[in-house]
């Protein structure tokens, strides 16, 4: 079955506080978005990447592709107002419903081939795959008169790639936008379907703040 990867890199990285959006920052000498793209292309020699970029950074993205990759396997599309709209723009490039579609944050450079394979296997069996990890910290919920403890064994932290059969994700994303749509699982649930959780990977962090970049660099150096 055809595999599509919507690699979302259309954000501005406000929390990173850098002039250059975090997906273009150098991580051990290569742009952050290089790593996840390379892992997908290596793991799935038959996949097509749809790289979603801010309009003003499309030329920079094209330069990265020219420098490192086979351009025939990668299309570029312009990002949207929110992550949801960026994913929608990417999905507009997918013609084939009979496919597996991965949506991955370009700012999760440490994603492993093993996790990609787990997601693919789950999609082929169940139709969806949402990687999750346990919560290591204690949790508190804010309530009207203060705060209260939350049982962390009932909570999972959600990662990407979030992967689906095309017959699920393509119709689900025709839904009207809601603020709670921070990931694909939320959209598919709002469409009326349940999603399948798979084991994520603690190393598969999202680069959100400056310290995350230092952690990712150290992890990559250890892996070399
Ligand atoms: N309109 C948007 C917003 C986000 N993203 C992408 O979604 C992923 C996860 O989002 P996040 O970490 O929140 O990135 P930013 O929105 O860039 O960061 P911030 O919220 O700090 O501004 C990133 O790869 C980001 O580029 C996107 O493609 N289009
Ligand atoms: C999709 C996601 O990476 C799952 O953890 C996350 O929701 C995206 O980050 P954001 O800060 O909500 O944009």
TrEMBL record:
Q: Which InterPro entries match?
A: IspD, IspD/TarI, IspD/TarI_cytidylyltransf_bact, Nucleotide-diphossugar_trans
Function summary: Catalyzes the formation of 4-diphosphocytidyl-2-C-methyl-D-erythritol from CTP and 2-C-methyl-D-erythritol 4-phosphate (MEP).
Organism, by scientific name, is: Ferruginibacter yonginensis
**Gene encoding the protein:** ispD
Protein family (similarity comment): Belongs to the IspD/TarI cytidylyltransferase family. IspD subfamily.
Its annotated pathway reads: Isoprenoid biosynthesis; isopentenyl diphosphate biosynthesis via DXP pathway; isopentenyl diphosphate from 1-deoxy-D-xylulose 5-phosphate: step 2/6
Name it: 2-C-methyl-D-erythritol 4-phosphate cytidylyltransferase
Question: Which NCBIfam families does the protein's record reference?
Answer: ispD, PRK00155.2-3
* Pfam families the UniProt entry points to: IspD (PF01128)
């Amino acid at each position: 079955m055809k595999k599509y990867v919507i690699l979302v890199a259309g954000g501005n990285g406000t929390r990173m506080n850098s002039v250059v959006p975090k997906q273009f920052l150098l991580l051990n000498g290569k742009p952050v978005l290089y790593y996840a793209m390379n892992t997908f292309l290596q793991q799935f020699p038959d996949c097509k990447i749809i790289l979603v970029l801010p309009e003003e950074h499309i030329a920079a993205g094209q330069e990265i592709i020219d420098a490192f990759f086979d351009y025939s396997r990668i299309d570029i599309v312009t990002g949207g107002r929110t992550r949801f709209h960026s994913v929608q723009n990417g999905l507009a490039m997918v013609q084939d419903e009979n496919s597996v579609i991965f949506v991955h944050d370009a700012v999760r450079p440490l994603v492993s081939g093993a996790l990609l394979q787990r997601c693919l296997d789950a999609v082929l069996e169940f139709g969806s795959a949402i990687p999750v990890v346990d919560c290591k910290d204690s949790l508190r919920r804010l309530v009207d008169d203060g705060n209260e403890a939350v049982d962390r064994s009932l909570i999972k932290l959600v990662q990407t790639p979030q992967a689906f059969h095309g017959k699920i994700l393509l119709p689900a994303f025709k839904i009207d936008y809601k603020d709670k749509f921070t990931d694909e699982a939320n959209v598919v649930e709002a469409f009326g379907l349940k999603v399948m959780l798979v084991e994520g990977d603690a190393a598969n962090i999202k680069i959100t703040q400056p310290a995350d970049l230092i952690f990712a660099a150290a992890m990559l150096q250890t892996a070399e």
